[in-house]
Amino acid sequence: MPERAKLLVVDDDPSVVDYLCEVLTERYEVHGLTSSRAAVQRIRTEDFDVVISDVEMPELRGPDLLAAVLEAKPRQAVLLITAFGSIELAVDTVRAGACDFVTKPFKLETLTLAIERALRERTMRREIVRLRRDLGESDPGLVATSTAMRAVLDLARRAARTDATVLVTGESGAGKGALARWIHERSARRDGPLVQINCAALPASLIEAELFGVRRGAFTDARESRDGLFVEASRGTLFLDEIGDMPLEAQAKLLHVLESSKVRPVGSSTEVDTDVRLIAATNRNLDDAIREGRFRSDLYFRINVVRIEVPPLRDRPADIPTLVHEFLARRGRGPLGITDEAMRWLCKHDWPGNVRELANVMERAIALTEHDTIVLDDVRDAQPRSLDDSSSLQQAAQRHLPLAEVELAYIRQIIAAVDGNMARAARVLGIDRRTLYRKLAGTST
Question: What is the pLDDT of residues 43-64, one digit of tens each?
Fold first, then answer.
């Protein structure tokens, strides 16, 4: 049975609150308050799908109540009930961010329809957020032909049945993000959002605001309040990719959230309850990071409840044919095949960039082939040329340049090898485009 939507009814008339709680409780989980100030305090610490409030109340009138609610929860759905004489006020409040209004006297059916519209809009907003994040960086497919990957999915299947925190480890491009999605889609939270953040992609100054939220004026660029990802992922899953790159100060605050199930937005003195399942991933050795003082041991124990190691593609060549056919089916311009010779070449390759690199090669081969079948030359030509004997890297080494300049030379070689396609270069390097641009600008530290 699906979880019932949670409503908060606010009206200074106790009889109205009692009536609405009584008639709506059959379909929804309903809570009622007669104080608008108490309602704002409750909303700050508790999640509601829709807040239903009278416009004319002695403590806070419609615009003031809405401003206080949206200050606490910028995406909160607020439905207003107004008398005929205050319709203009209600319209102004809707323009300021309320989702809808209903005029008194109203039929129960009218109110229910307005509530359902608000719930649908909330669901659509969450879906749009999810799709935008998914489209931002598409993960390669997740297959389990090999014995190694079948063992991975067996453990992931058992983890999905619980709300336990999962730590996914493995090399860049191995499929950690795809596995996180796989777990979420098979969990009890699958109808909730899956929200992802790459901890290596944001500077230390912004990651806390992104994760925990920020209140207007908390720092120079905080021009408006907004929810953090913990609130955005409410009743769903938050995927922290590259958690090994998270700054120590943010690690301490994350530990507090995991221990208390409460999050405090930057610039706020009030904590908000959270209901989130956490999946973390890293390509780093966290044991080494702990010894070197770059990662908190107490946080490690908190996230390392169920640990799943995704093996590199070179250790599971049996998965390569299945992945290749998946890429052909998903990205082909029509029915495309592949010769045995080309498939053997793909299966023998080491794939240092793992599944992400294989996906890149197949994407390029599919785009450039002149045949209905991918042949050996297609996949060989699609492979970025080796950088081992790169003249620019040799020159950098011979001149004893700093590591940062050698890295920059390597990045430029990758970009040249993929004909300047920055998205592909980022995939081959195992980083996102924002990190790539920062490194090119010399601001990665």
Answer: 888 889 999 998 888 888 777 8
Residue 7, number of CB atoms within 10 A of its CB: 25
Rg (the chain; Cα; Å): 26
Q: What is the 8-class DSSP label of residue 387?
A: -
With b for 16 or more beta-carbon neighbours within 10 A and e for fewer, the 251-285 pattern comes to bebbbbbbeeeebbbbebeebbebebbbbbbbbee
CA distance 177 to 199: 13
Q: Which residues contact 70 (CB under 8 A, 6 or more apart)?
A: 76, 78, 97, 225
Domain 137-311 and domain 391-441 have a common topology = no
3-state secondary structure at position 106? coil
Contact between residue 373 and residue 325 where contact means Cβ atoms under 8 Å apart: no
| Residue 392 CB neighbours (<10 A) | 15
Lookup: tokens for 406: 């050698």
pTM greater than the 0.85 cutoff: no
CATH 1.10.10 fits 391-441, yes or no: yes
- Fold for the domain defined by 314-382: Helicase, Ruva Protein; domain 3 (1.10.8)
Q: What is the pLDDT of residues 220-256, one digit of tens each?
A: 555 566 788 998 898 999 999 999 999 999 999 999 9
The predicted-structure confidence for 69-111, as pLDDT tens digits, reads as follows: 887 777 788 998 887 656 666 666 666 778 888 887 888 898 9
